[in-house]
Amino acid sequence: MIDVFRAVLDAVSQWSIPGLMLLIVLWGRAKGVPMYSAFVTGAKEGFNVAVMIIPYLVAILVVVKVFTASGIFEDIKTVAAWGLSTVGAEEAAEGLELLPLALIRPLSGGGARGVLVEIFDTHGPDSLLGQIASLMMGSTETTFYVIAVYYGAVQVRNSRHTLPACLAADAAGAIAAVLVGLLLFA
Questions:
Q1: What angle do CA 135, 138, 141 make, to 5 degrees?
Q2: What is the pLDDT of residue 157?
Q3: N or C, which terminus of the chain has less Cβ within 10 Å?
Q4: Can you give the pTM of this predicted structure?
Q5: Distance CA 86, CA 161 (A)
C-alpha cells in the first residue's frame, strides 16, 4: 500500500511542472494568445532586466566580500564579549557566536550559510546554538540583496524607508529566533 502511494506521489511530482506548463500553453491557445512570440518577448524583457541589475549585484557582492575579509564581524563579537563581561554577564558570551550570523544575513545568503555551517561544525546542528541559528536563518532575510535586485530591476534610486523597515524586521526576526529557540530548546 505504501509503495503504491509512493509511486503515485513520485508520478505526480515528476509530471506537475510539465503538466502546469502544458496547461498554461493550452489556456493561452484557447484565449488566442500567440504563445511563442509572447514567450520570446518575455524572455527578452527578462534578459534586459538581468542586464540592468548586474551593477547592483556587483556592488552588493563587493560590500559582502569587504566586510567578510576585513574581520569586522569578529571585532564586533570581541567588543560585545568585553561589554558583557564588564557588566558580569559572561555566560551570555556563548550566544555571541550567533552575532556574525545576524550581521551577515542581511548582506548575503551564501555568507550566512557559511557562518551557519561553521556554527554547526563547532557546536553541532542539534545544539542549542545550532537550533537557534537555524531559526535565525529562517526568520531573517537577505535585505540588501533583495533591495538591490528588486529596486535595480525597476530603476528605483531612493529607497526611502525601505531599508530601515527591512533592517528592523531582520532585527526583530533575529531576536524572536533567539527567544523562541531558548523557549523551545533550552
A1: 130
A2: 78
A3: N
A4: 0.64
A5: 36
In the chain the first and final C-alpha atoms are separated, in Å, by 40
User: Residue for cell digits 556587483?
Assistant: 58
Contact 174, 166 (CB under 8 A): no
CA gap 100, 116 in Å, rounded:
9
What number of residues does the chain have? 186
Q: Are 92 and 84 in contact (CB under 8 A)?
A: yes
Q: Contact 129/97 with Cβ under 8 angstroms? A: yes
Say what the pLDDT of residue 139 is.
93
Torsional sign, CA 56, 58, 62, 64: positive
Q: What is the mean pLDDT of each run of 10 residues along the chain (186 residues)?
A: 84 89 90 87 84 76 77 80 73 75 84 86 90 93 84 79 91 91 86
Output the DSSP codes for 63-124: HHHHHHHHTHHHHHHHHHHHHHHHTT-GGGGGGGGGHHHHHHTTT-HHHHHHHHHHHHHHH-
Nearest to 180 by CA among 140, 124, 121: 140
